[in-house]
Amino acid sequence: MSIKLYNTQSQKKEDFKPLEQGKVKIYLCGPTVYDFLHIGNFRGAITFNLIRNWFEKSGYDVTFVYNYTDVDDKIIKRSIEEGVDSNVISERYIAEFEKDFKRLGLKKHDHNPRVTDFIPQIISLIQRIIDNNKAYVIDGEVFYQIEAYEKYGQLSKKKLDELEAGQRVEVDTRKKSPFDFVLWKPSKEGEPYWDSPWGKGRPGWHIECSAMINSLLGDTIDIHGGGIDLIFPHHENEMAQGEGATNCTYCNYWVHNNFINFGDQKMSKSLGNVVKARDFMNKYHPEILKYLFLSAHYRSQLSVTDDKINQTVGALKRIYAALEIAHIINHEVEQTAEADGAFVKTLNSLTSKIKKALDDDFNTAEYISYLFEATRAFNALKIATKRKPTHKATAQAFINWMKEQGELGALFEENPTQILDELDEMLLKEKQIDKREVLNLISEREKARTDKDWGKADELKSQLAALGIELRDGMKRSWEVKIGAE
Ligand SMILES: [Zn+2]
Question: 227: helix, coil or strand?
Fold first, then answer.
């Protein structure tokens, strides 16, 4: 069965057919680097990381380009505020973005082109559009003439007359149509500029992606991605530029991810205005962000609420706790025998289910549910405190399966003990409980039990329970923090 994906342009799911056998060319619009990125900006990066991994797992050779917009009004504004060159700002936030990206454990892209490295290619693409009579020059400014490109609106399904009716902004009377957009503009005093056939200036926003695609991937690409907010005008304009220059199809499949929702009343209370990915990862954990995002289909809106974050922490704790147990069994049992047959069968059937889910327009919500199902099946074996040769092989089967399936979403690659400790620390901090207090109560209870003072031991157990600490007698991880439904 082939991979099916939803194409924004045709508005339906289509069978993926590559331009070139066994290869996929993907371009995803990257960030404008003028500040730390909002967590919403990472929905695309996390989704497309999985999409890329899934194509690779399905036997494709993927070339993935993700650009950095390093010339832009917002960058220039910030550079003026700080009294530094605009490249100081863009370099700084590229470095910060790359830190976040690395912390999320996402796979490096094949190319991260920057606008400032592609000026000659941008100029030559603009020239080809002009030569094709689809752009015109006025006072050192180049405009794309959308009426010369009859397919304009094919992606966003917008019609020019409707656009015109909704137009309220002031119109530049030099333009042939109010919707003609800028390919090249003269730089203002103090702004970065490059020499061009039309004078000193800088590129408009949309042209960079078309030029980078053309130089790095060719006239036509397989998949172009981005957030749904980019469909119009950015992607519509990109397509007009690409096709206006080459007369070839720009892209075969347009894949757009939906928003992250913070705006409604259900918005996370404890998160408050902490919506930068850096702050989220500091307050919570990168794994939470990935699991949370992938637990919803990329085309649906996702509200980030306290409940959802709690559910995610709960799910991660359960899966990692099972993995920790599997590692302990694997470590402590020396001899091995064949793994539990029924369990292996369950894992194999879940592998097929994951394939079916991801082949069907990358249904990560189902993918996540199958990871959880495997954990449930492992826990149901009730081998946590048993040590038989067959358990070693069973534990290994679980570890290997989780590694293979988890890495598709860059999940479950952490050391289980370490992340469980980190998640517990995070929960204690949230409850404003001092860990030393917990450890003291636990050791007092241990002492009471040794002294056979059962009354006191019970009392201490209730005190711990009141703090949200659950005791796990007999287990290596002897206590954990419960996720409070406060
Ligand atoms: Zn773009």
Answer: strand
